[in-house]
Design goal:
alpha+beta; Alpha-Beta Plaits; four-stranded antiparallel β-sheet; 38% helix; globular
């Protein structure tokens, strides 16, 4: 038996409410991308456990924690990875800790592949909880499940509720957030993605420390961000107005938790966004903690103009970088089972 999972990557535009005054926190907006992506294949291989294309220790840890968590959620009998009799191959990878959601997509792909090869029909919500994903942002789980543009509703906040403090998804114990809106994005909208080689974005203990230091966000900033989303970003999406949608993306970079994420990055990120706008992009931003920076355009000609200008800026600073031009993934992950 063989199971192949192909996931999107994702742009995380912004968390919405890290104030919590209305009894909810988090909330998020983001979008699934076709490129880069993860392709993961698991096949039965009696009497062995082998991993190719990624750290075997990482996969063993993910599997161990997944089975342990499933035991608490569903009563699943905990098994050791080496008892599975599988060969796992990572054929394509998403760069890690750069703001593209690699760990969530890897965890979900692995969890779904394992459950299918063991002929268990757990839904994505159970797999996500088993993998400890989605406890702050619901974007990664929802883009895996459905693709497109995602607007999630966050978590209840306070004593006896889903969350008691401001924490990143990796350490939060809350379930994946409810999806308020999932919408396919126009096929002719393209994202230019640049990964400047300036170090990884915040993760691990540093990410936890940032949440603790800067939250709660002032209520006025949350209100400003909410207005941009409801009265500019969403109407631009529904009416397929790339200029309105793009202007909202650009405005989001200057408010709320996203403003802090950008302030903690190197100045080249702001420079790249300014250059992209001057080169004709409809909107710009930084995904999650970065350093992945993106520009929204309506044609490959515009995309190439933006890339050329960004490359010139990076070359001037002697900074290397990777570039992608990608459509939105409007369908989510694909899962193929061959018996």
């Amino acid at each position: 038996m063989q199971v192949t999972v192909r996931t999107p990557s994702r742009l995380h535009f912004s968390l919405i409410d890290l104030h919590g005054g209305l009894g909810r926190v988090d909330g998020g907006i983001g979008v699934a991308l076709e490129t880069p992506h993860i392709t993961l294949r698991i096949q039965t291989s009696p009497n062995q456990f082998s991993v190719r294309g990624i750290s075997e220790d990482l996969i063993r840890t993910l599997i161990h924690n997944f089975f342990k968590n499933l035991n608490g959620i569903t009563g699943f009998e905990v098994r050791k990875p080496e008892e599975l009799g599988i060969q796992l191959d990572i054929i394509n990878k998403i760069p890690s800790h750069v703001g593209l959601g690699s760990r969530t997509q890897l965890s979900l792909a692995l969890g779904m592949a394992l459950t299918r090869i063991m002929q268990l029909d757990y839904p994505i919500s159970v797999v996500a909880k088993g993998m400890n994903r989605g406890g702050t942002s619901g974007i990664g789980v929802a883009t895996f499940d459905q693709g497109g543009f995602i607007f999630d509703g966050g978590h209840s906040y306070g004593p006896g509720r889903q969350k008691l403090q401001f924490t990143p998804s990796r350490v939060a114990q809350a379930p994946p957030a409810p999806v308020i809106l999932q919408k396919k994005m126009p096929r002719d909208w393209l994202f230019v993605i640049v990964l400047p080689e300036i170090g990884k974005g915040a993760y691990g203990a540093r990410e936890v420390d940032i949440f603790q230091k800067y939250c709660p966000i002032p209520e006025q900033e949350v209100e400003r961000l909410s207005r941009i989303i409801v009265m500019q970003l969403l109407p631009g999406l529904i009416e397929k107005d790339i200029q309105t949608f793009g202007s909202a993306l650009t405005a989001i970079q200057q408010v709320g938790f996203k403003r802090i994420e950008i302030e903690l990055q190197q100045t080249i990120i702001k420079d790249l966004m300014d250059i992209a706008l001057k080169s004709g992009a409809a909107g710009v931003g930084m995904s999650s903690f970065g350093p992945t920076t993106y520009a929204l355009v309506s044609s490959h000609r515009e995309a190439n103009n933006v890339i050329n200008s960004m490359k010139t800026a990076l070359d001037a600073e002697k900074i290397a970088g990777q570039f992608f031009i990608t459509h939105v993934n409007n369908i989510g992950a694909s899962i193929e089972v061959e018996k």
